[in-house]
């Protein structure tokens, strides 16, 4: 790499070392790199370390090697390379026109074709993105006491990629059908993760009911663009019973995602082998067992073998309909 400023690079190494081990932490930093303190001291004085040590510094501190050597971000590097590519193309075109002026009409026609192609692709992408954004529908697939219906059987969840395909097909099938009702309801975040709390900015969502293909057939969707954008494979379930009261009550709707498995201490929708339907409980797993813990004290904790747990998904949020 050309034109590396040795002093500036050493300064960035000192900056990383100070952040990692403090102003007097040369020896600690050297040991973490697997080299002697005296060898490391030479590097901070007047020389750039060998490539292996530079890579170790980046791995240890999380720094970018390109930034360490140049002070520039990867974005700046990509921009610089792109600008260099543009200059090369423009220079080649200029030389071609100077040597063969008769190619001017062909070049102009080619550029026009490229412009039309780019405009067409941009329009297609924009149209698709707008459709996806405007939809924002999350299907309500069943009840916690009766299992997940419509898309999946009771025994196995699909892979997340398959789930997205099936959910998209369900939504597409019913988008545009006659809406029977659309009621606002408050939503409460249950899983404190950034891409959920940051995107879920409003306090109300819509419960949309549409007509199915059969007489008296009704399908329900949660209309919430923020959740749909953050978790494209999400789906919803009605809650039967008050075992999670007063936080989640009978008739509320919970939203989960196949890509967000439940961890210990979280509210989860769990499926236990040979049990009808699914259940909403606090989950705690040990090496041998799964504890499904109600919030309502009048209910007892259920314990199942670890191998009996087919799946457990974290409750992202719930919607109160009362």
Characterization of the model:
By secondary structure, the chain is an alpha+beta fold. The chain folds into three domains: 99 residues, lambda repressor-like DNA-binding domains (434 Repressor (Amino-terminal Domain), Orthogonal Bundle), CATH 1.10.260.40; 35 residues; 183 residues, Ribbon (Umud Fragment, subunit A), CATH 2.10.109.10. Helices cover 42% and strands 25% of the residues. It is built from ten helices and twelve strands. It has a seven-stranded mixed β-barrel with strand order 1-5-4-3-12-7-6. A hairpin with a 6-residue loop joins strand 4 and strand 5. The longest helix is centred in the middle third of the chain and has 32 residues. It is flat and about 75 Å long.
SSE order, one letter for each helix or strand: HHHHHHHEEHEHEEHEEEEEEE
SS summary, helix count: 10
> How large is the share of residues in beta strands?
15-25%
Compute the number of structural domains: 3
**DSSP summary, beta strand count:** 12
What is the CATH architecture assignment of the largest domain? Ribbon
How is the largest sheet built, in terms of strand order?
1-5-4-3-12-7-6
- CATH homology-level superfamily of the largest domain: Umud Fragment, subunit A
Low-confidence stretches: 123-134, 146-157
**Structural class determined from secondary elements:** alpha+beta
What secondary-structure arrangement, pairings included, does this model have?
Elements: H1 6-21, H2 26-33, H3 37-46, H4 51-61, H5 65-70, H6 74-99, H7 104-135, E1 137-143, E2 147-148, H8 160-174, E3 179-189, H9 194-197, E4 204-211, E5 218-223, H10 225-230, E6 235-238, E7 253-261, E8 267-272, E9 279-285, E10 289-293, E11 302-305, E12 309-319
Parallel strand pairs: 1-6
Antiparallel strand pairs: 1-2, 1-5, 3-4, 3-12, 4-5, 6-7, 7-12, 8-9, 8-12, 9-10, 10-11
